[in-house]
Amino acid sequence: MATMKEVQLAARALGHEIPDDFLSNQIERTKPMGPYKPSSMLDYVNGHPLEVEAIWGEPMRRAEKAGVAVPRISALYHRILELDRQR
Known about the structure:
This protein has helices at 2-13, 20-30, 39-45, 52-65, 71-86. It is an all-alpha fold and 87 residues long.
């Protein structure tokens, strides 16, 4: 939920409101799914190109430019870049 809160704060700073109940609803909707692998993980495991900049890099840069600290998103972005370079 903390990463989703970072997205929410960044969106707000950029003029887009994401209500709290939307975040809660997303969490509740994923619970019945059980453990699963996100599409980015499947791409990585299968050796496909990763959409690092579109999914992580650009949103992170826009948030930071708007003055919003997004440490979790930044950490994920840099870790994914590191893993991508290692393959």
